[in-house]
Design the sequence.
């Protein structure tokens, strides 16, 4: 899906900002939605007239899910929060962008047409309007209890340029960024909530640079900060949000606390990256076989297998 706004991105490039902030977990305090919404407005306002794009972490408005298995009561609470977020908070934030320079990307739980079912979504807002909504395609184990997966690539034209939207686990799958790149994305955004676990920190270090190099587009990796309680143990979100140019250069990187990270993404880097290897020209989809042919099945016994 491609949505178009006025093509008024600066010729030289895009000035972007990451609002690396913590969020109240609404499954334990539903009133946190209003607090989180006000916090987003406040942080957005700090740079709304000096940048082209401000990006917030995954599920900023609601906080994350309770990571301790399925809890039907907490899912009901979150579905009510999702209704309020879509009906009130998101329109309020869209209104806050009216007359401001910066577009905003913010994560929220989005209600579906099914009762108590939700998407893990991110919206791009600009000039008082919702320009695009992306629903997370790839759901890790715990999230399958709370969300239904999306199935559509979303690329949006905004003041910062042509932006592809992804969420967290999506960045582990190169197909997500490639689909956005094939639709002309100049910037791929990955909003996240990754815990301070060594393996996740290693992925957060490597994948934004890898995606930039292989897709020849800028990448903005936005991670949350703060703490979660999981099965009686407190875990930190490690932050380390990163702005990476299409040449694979780390333009700016955050620490592990709340921070407003800023960087400039030059349009010239897009051409410079393609001049190293013309990857999009040299692709061979005719030789890749059925790479997108259905989901992998994990059954031990397959029909037709000799016994």
Sequence:
């Amino acid at each position: 899906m491609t949505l178009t706004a006025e093509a008024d991105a600066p010729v030289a490039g895009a000035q972007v900002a990451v609002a690396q902030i913590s969020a109240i977990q609404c499954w334990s305090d539903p009133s946190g939605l209003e607090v989180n919404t006000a916090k987003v407005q406040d942080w957005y306002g700090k740079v709304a007239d000096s940048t082209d794009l401000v990006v917030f972490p995954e599920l900023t408005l609601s906080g994350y899910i309770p990571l301790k298995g399925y809890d039907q009561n907490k899912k009901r609470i979150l579905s009510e929060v999702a209704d309020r977020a879509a009906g009130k908070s998101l329109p309020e934030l869209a209104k806050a962008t009216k007359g401001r320079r910066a577009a905003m990307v913010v994560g929220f739980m989005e209600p579906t047409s099914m009762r108590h079912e939700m998407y893990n979504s991110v919206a791009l807002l600009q000039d008082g309007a919702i320009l695009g909504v992306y629903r997370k395609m790839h759901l890790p184990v715990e999230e399958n209890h709370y969300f239904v997966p999306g199935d559509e690539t979303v690329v949006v034209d905004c003041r910062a340029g042509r932006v592809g939207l992804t969420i967290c686990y999506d960045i582990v799958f190169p197909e997500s960024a490639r689909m956005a790149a094939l639709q002309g994305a100049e910037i791929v955004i990955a909003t996240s909530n990754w815990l301070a676990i060594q393996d996740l920190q290693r992925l957060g270090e490597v994948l934004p640079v890898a995606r930039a190099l292989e897709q020849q587009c800028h990448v903005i990796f936005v991670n949350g900060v703060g703490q979660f309680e999981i099965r009686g143990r407190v875990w930190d979100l490690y932050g380390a949000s990163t702005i990476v140019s299409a040449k694979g250069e780390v333009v700016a990187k955050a620490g592990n606390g709340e921070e407003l990270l800023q960087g400039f993404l030059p349009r010239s880097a897009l051409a410079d990256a393609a001049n190293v290897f013309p990857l999009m020209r040299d692709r061979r989809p005719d030789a890749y076989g059925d790479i997108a042919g259905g989901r992998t099945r994990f059954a031990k016994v397959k029909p037709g297998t000799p016994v």
